[in-house]
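Thread: quick sanity check before group meeting

JM: Hey all, I'm pulling together slides for Thursday and realized we never actually wrote out the predicted structure for the chain we discussed last week. Dropping the sequence here so it's in one place. If anyone has concerns about the input, flag it before I start.
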Amino acid sequence: MKNIIVGFFTIIIVGLMAWTASNGGAYNGGIHSKVIADIGDGRVAATVAQPKEKSDREKENEALSALRDKAGNAGSFKVSKEYKSKCSSCHGVNASGFQNGKKMMGPKLFGQDADKLYKKLTDFKAGRKENMIMKGLLIKLNKEDLRRLADEIGEFPARAEALK
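JM (edit): ok, ran it. Output follows.
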């Protein structure tokens, strides 16, 4: 009796699988996987987005933008190796929060007061401000190192002004 029941359910399951496959699969495509262009009139139309060829003007603008980014980075003020190794990957080469026109992970530091920056750095190191990346970067630095970093970042506006 047990074998008859198992055989019956096996036949039902195989039949349902065949029926599902003949109807376009179990959500493996069918009409639901296509992009719906117009459903307002009850009609479903599938569209495939073709990549748009860029005009010569757009290509020139992109090349010009890339050159401006390179020129901005090359002409930026000097920063210490410590700032480059610990801070620039998140806050940008010049602490603007942007690099090569893209928003960085860390916030803008440029223009902040050195004393406020020092307080924030000590808070990150002590764990009063939660940020595992900052805490990990600052864990081996002493107070003099933190003060030196804060003072350097605080000088960035004056350094940028001197380049003009």
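AS: nice. Strands lie at 98-99, 102-103. The two ends are 93 Å apart (CA to CA).
JM: adding both to the slides.
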